[in-house]
Task: structure prediction
Amino acid sequence: MYLNGQGVAPDPKEARRWLTSAAEQGVAQVQYRLRQLYANGQGVSKDMEIAYAWFGVAAHLGNTQAATEKKTAAAALSGDALRKAESLSADYIERYGEPPGERK
Result:
């Protein structure tokens, strides 16, 4: 809605706020979409480590496209950056890796 300006003026920062809220609730498709904002720097500073982390949690929740693209993202990160991204991904999976309704 805010990202593409559907019914409102485009506002990538507001889109990030809403997407983050839904992603933190375990919505895999939104997690996958949020990674795009970080990968492309839409409404946020470009950050491939955070993008990779959202790929990881979306893949963990069964998003097959995220699982496939996570491999491509890994190839784009240096050794240190990949280690940081994998650690962040593990943290995100622990925090946001349960679908809505199954969170404790």
Notes: The radius of gyration is 13 Å.
